[in-house]
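Weekly structure sync - notes
Attendees: PM, LS, DV (DV joined late)
Agenda: review two folding runs queued last week.

Item 1: First target. Sequence and structure tokens pasted below for the record.
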Amino acid sequence: MTDVNMFDDDKPQNKQVGGSHYMYYDIQPYEFISKNNLSFFQGCVIKYVCRYMHKNGVEDLDKIIHYCELEKKKLQDATPEQLENWIDGYRKWKAESEDNI
């Protein structure tokens, strides 16, 4: 009889290219980001938060700060219409996410 799990190691989420810093977690950052429909900004912050202790230390912390500063500037420079569009997008995302639970 064939083992149904024999190809599990071939799944992309079960391997990592260029290190093992994400393999410490039960769920890879990519899977968490994807399943939670996070934005590019949020995904970058999650990625660096998860890896800084196992890869680049202070440099990764600096990257987290940099991405937060970029997002802060984006929000500060946004027009009221842009802010409203982002809020509407968030509400839609939240409703869709709750429907999938």
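Item 2: Second target, run right after the first with the same settings.
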Amino acid sequence: MKKLKRLAAVLLAGIMALALFTACSDSDPGNPEFDAKVESAYQEALKTKFEKELENGEAVTNDADIKRLAIEHIEEKHGADSLTGEMLWKTDGDGKTMVRQVMLCWELKKDTGKGYVPLFYEAAKTAAIKANSTNVRALLRTVNEEIANAKKNGITLELTALGVGAKTIGGKTYVAIGFELTNTAAQ
């Protein structure tokens, strides 16, 4: 009888340990349907805000490379308690012919009003998704500054793509938005 109780106790402890490890798994299935809705809302906001900057039809669609970079950035920064302005951005490309930049959408820290925290949506608490206009304006300002700074150095950059990536992690859907600039003289 004692051996049976010990065996039962060991089995129960093993099952509890397995349950604990399963709960700590990093395989969050996310919410692909809600991610797509968030991406669509931001893509529409980018399209509206960047209307005069867009010189070709490609820039209106959600660029796959920018989306990939955005999701990578979300996965790296989503749980941060505080972000600096530099941490909001991730860059990809060779820097000579083309550069892609994505910005993790953010809001100011509520407790201090200084610094940033990742902006997120919760599907259960969000009736309508509205793109954060401050983030969209910040992206437009950055594009215009990059183009102007390049022009001062005799380089002509063209906005060639826009993109959005959204990913649900732990019930919170984070979003990053980005752009691609191409050096027209380097082609």
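Discussion on item 2: Strands lie at 89-92, 98-104, 106-108, 116-118, 120-121, 157-169, 172-183.
Action: LS to circulate a short write-up before next sync.
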